[in-house]
Design goal:
Largest sheet: none
Radius of gyration: 30 Å
Number of strands: 0
Shape: flat
Number of helices: 13
Helix content: over 70%
CATH superfamily: MetI-like
Distance between the termini: 75 Å
CATH architecture: Orthogonal Bundle
Number of domains: 1
Order of helices and strands: HHHHHHHHHHHHH
CATH class: Mainly Alpha
CATH topology: MetI-like fold
Length: about 300
């Protein structure tokens, strides 16, 4: 047998060399990256869409009036240490923020208390007609808010409440209550009825079962609903614009709408600074509350 034929036979008899695990992992990771690339691109586009306006707003809050009128809209501010716009904005926005706090937080507390109690009564307590009552709350969700503004304004004016924050508190509570009751009833429906039966057998009254058993169990649900309703009420413009007849009672959204300088000329620097104050305060509050809600949900899932 010749040398060439011997070499060919050896090559044919030699087993195929396996692919190293490192090469397999690199190929798998490459295919996985290609599959996830469209998702990454969508996330990047959404990030640009949401973050770019915030950056533009923040940069604009450091510009002077001359820079807004002379330079392009995408130009950077000449002085990043210019905080005079924030000082000017805060002198006006502080009162608007206080009015928003005094109108939104009482309405939110009343809504959560009544909504949690109503959801507990409609799903845990047994009485005739509870399904009808729940349907009546659902009807309240379907009523457009614009239809009730004129009748409510007339009632508030005749009752002498038009020069106070009570119209906002009452209207906010009434508009937020139907959805809160429906969501709380849905959460209570998922709780086993045996828990409340066991508390009753242990001698707890209905009020003790509500405050000592139901409320602690619904803590994460209450935080979630509070977060949703807070942003709905804080960002309201129509109701606040209708019922705040006095300039000293304006909420932050109405105040930003009428935030103008001398002789009605818009002073862009303080206006941008005022919007930044409102946006970033709400953003920080959202991140804090959202972290609390997610942490509570994770703790409840791990506790078993």
């Amino acid at each position: 047998m010749t040398t060439a034929s011997t070499t060919a036979a050896v090559v044919r008899d030699e087993p195929s060399r396996p692919v190293p695990p490192a090469d397999k992992g690199a190929r798998a990771s490459g295919r996985s990256f290609v599959k996830r690339l469209p998702g990454y691109l969508v996330v990047a586009v959404l990030l640009v869409v949401f973050v770019a306006p915030l950056i533009w707003l923040l940069l604009g809050s450091f510009k002077t009036q001359e820079e807004f009128l002379r330079n392009p809209a995408w130009a950077l501010p000449e002085d990043f240490g210019n905080i005079s716009n924030y000082a000017t904005a805060w002198s006006s926005v502080a009162g608007y923020l206080l009015n928003s706090v005094l109108s939104v937080f009482p309405a939110l507390l009343i809504t959560l208390l009544i909504g949690t109690a109503a959801g507990f009564a409609l799903e845990v307590m047994v009485f005739r007609g509870r399904r009808t009552v729940l349907l009546l709350f659902l009807v309240g969700i379907m009523i457009p808010g614009q239809m009730i503004l004129l009748p409510l304004f007339t009632v508030y004016f005749q009752a002498g409440l038009s020069r106070s924050l009570w119209p906002l508190i009452i209207t906010y509570t009434a508009t937020a209550l139907p959805l809160t009751v429906f969501m709380m009833a849905t959460y209570f429906r998922a709780v086993p009825r045996e828990i409340f039966e066991a508390s009753t057998l242990d001698g707890a009254s209905i009020f003790r079962s509500f405050f000592s058993v139901a409320v602690p169990m619904m803590r994460n649900a209450i935080f979630t609903i509070a977060l949703v309703q807070f942003f709905f009420l804080w960002n309201d413009l129509l109701i606040a614009l209708t019922f705040t007849t006095d300039e000293s009672l304006r909420t932050v959204q109405v105040g930003l709408l009428n935030f103008t300088g001398q002789f009605g000329v818009v002073d862009y620097g303080p206006t941008f600074a005022a919007i930044c104050i409102n946006v970033f305060i709400i953003l920080a509050l959202y991140l804090f509350l959202n972290r609390r809600v997610m942490g509570g949900l994770a703790a409840g899932a791990v506790k078993g």
